[in-house]
Design brief:
72% helix; 2 domains; MetI-like fold; 315 residues
Length: 315
């Protein structure tokens, strides 16, 4: 008969400790081992959150720690929500989120659908497509900055080949109208493989006998796609949108490497604006309120989205 957890623990512990352990249940022993980890996680996550919320109600500045800290209530939140610059960064973030998720889901699903069809060299092409997401965002940012250079960048010459425009007459990362699209292109290139893998898992989870039954009913390929493939892959698509939405809402390093938030503030996302408030202007209390607003926004939207995802999965 296999030994219980208490008996195994008694064999490897000193007699005095073993006598104390024998009087404990398996649940109590589990809590003894898990409690230190829980305490550490609470200290790392919960305390900074509570401290940030407290600072958001003050005028604290980290570069002036000896100055008297004044409790100013909701003044920081009022200033943020009535500041036109804040809404400009929100608009830039919304533009970035919508178009990156749109292109990544569209292209990612198309690639997954093609790769799911067995053909020669399937594994090789899958590996090649997945390579971009394995790179560091800093490396990707520097690489694409070089490609976007008007004089020597390869990207401008590709655009010139299809449009006939002089490649030195425009700059993707220096033009106000083109800069937002430059980061959309790079993020789509880098993270479409991630969406593709999730969609591929959804496609391969569909039992073959469903398609066989549809063929017996003489359903066309187009009808099978809309009545079988899309409904059964939809939870995976929604999961991919959730992951990419949360990640892109806090996008920072890639944008800093490409445009630095410029030209002007065209590509200044909320994460970049938050960093400037906290570590360039040193308005710690103001930045804390900003962080709390972003946290509540992401948490609220994600909660609503997860409920919708659960409804789709329950169908």
């Amino acid at each position: 008969m296999p030994k219980s957890a208490i008996e195994r623990a008694a064999e490897v512990t000193p007699p005095a400790v073993a006598r104390r352990i024998k009087g404990l249940s398996d649940r109590a022993i589990a809590w003894i081992f898990v409690t230190p980890t829980i305490v550490i996680l609470l200290a790392i996550n919960i305390f900074p959150l509570i401290w940030t919320i407290w600072l958001s109600f003050t005028n604290f500045r980290v570069n002036r720690p000896n100055n008297a800290v004044e409790f100013i209530g909701l003044r920081n939140y009022e200033r943020i929500l009535t500041d036109p610059d804040t809404w400009m960064t929100m608009q830039a973030t919304a533009h970035f989120l919508f178009w990156t998720i749109f292109f990544q889901v569209l292209i990612g699903f198309a690639l997954a659908y093609l790769i799911n069809k067995k053909f020669k060299g399937n594994d090789m092409w899958t590996t090649i497509i997945v390579l971009p997401m394995m790179l560091s965002p800093a490396v990707v940012g520097n690489f694409w900055t070089f490609l976007y250079q008007p004089q020597i960048g390869f990207f401008n010459y590709v655009v010139s080949f299809f449009t006939g425009v002089d490649p030195t007459s425009f700059s993707m990362i220096g033009d106000v109208s083109l800069a937002p699209w430059s980061i959309v292109i790079v993020d789509t290139w880098m993270w479409t493989p991630f969406v593709m893998l999730i969609c591929l898992a959804g496609l391969r989870s569909i039992p073959d006998n469903i398609y066989e039954a549809a063929e017996c009913d003489r359903a066309s390929k187009w009808r099978q796609f809309w009545t079988i493939t899309i409904p059964m892959v939809l939870p995976f698509l929604m999961l991919a949108i959730l992951f990419r939405g949360i990640e892109n809402f806090k996008m920072f390093d890639l944008v800093v490497q490409l445009t630095g938030g410029g030209p002007g503030s065209t590509t200044e996302l909320t994460s970049i604006n938050l960093k400037r408030e906290a570590f360039e202007k040193w308005r710690t209390g103001f930045a804390s309120a900003y962080a709390v607003i972003l946290f509540v926004t992401v948490f609220g939207l994600a909660s609503i989205y997860v409920k919708a995802l659960n409804r789709v999965k329950a169908r």
